[in-house]
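Thread: sanity check for a docking pose with zinc ion

Original post by kr_44:
Hi all, I'm comparing my docking run against an independent structure prediction. Below are the sequence and the ligand SMILES. Could someone generate the full complex and paste the structure tokens? I mainly care about where the ligand ends up relative to the chain.
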Amino acid sequence: MRLIPSLVSISMLLMPTAAVSGQGFDVIVLGALGGIQDGNLSSYLIRPHGDRNAIACDAGSLVNGLKVAQDKGVFGDVKVPEGSTDSVIGHVLKNDIKGYLISHAHLDHVQGLVIASPDDSNKTIYGLPSVSAQIEQTYFNWKAWPNMLDRGQQPHLKKYHLEDLKPGETKDLAGTTMTVTPFPLNHGGAESTAFLIESGDDAILCFGDTGPDEVQKAFNMQTIWKAVADKVKQRKLKAIILLS
Ligand SMILES: [Zn+2]
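Reply from moderator J.T.:
Ran it for you. Here is the predicted complex with zinc ion included:
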């Protein structure tokens, strides 16, 4: 696994791996904090190593994060096609980010996506049904923002297909070689999500906001550890990202 630090160091527990060049994932940190700092809110670009087609796990800061990454030279190899009027950042936003996994609908995990949506390309937003419903009802409702979705308040601008995920069910991430399996988390009464993202034999686990089972009065973490135990033993789980 190769980490590309773009903003600040991230809360990541590296699992023991037999890392081999050409395997694993590249992770570009677009934002690493929760809360009040509006240019640095949770968002992680994840792509199989050597593959441009990425998924964003949460989108608290999006264009701001892409700009910091560009300033650090992360996109030095990006070639904007001749004739395109896009900047490098615009090109990465529209072409490389194939979709968004949203762990929960708190503002500090989605605001970058909402703000960038007029300039974004058509793609899919994935979330558990309660999270999708919040995205639809709270943001893309023609009051907070125009409805860029393909459902909810009419008219539908259909920039984003809002895809409901089922807990524990694996789904292809359109436009990428990755799949996702979501696991519900408790976030102080709200539903949050851990995403198990897989590409070939490799996996990476991205946790939305949550707390220990004992504090959250739930067994969500236990369920996830059981689900990934074999991958840890087989050294296929390359990293765990803890969003804040
Ligand atoms: Zn939250």
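Residues 152 and 176 are 27 Å apart (CA to CA). Hope that helps with the comparison, let us know if your pose agrees.
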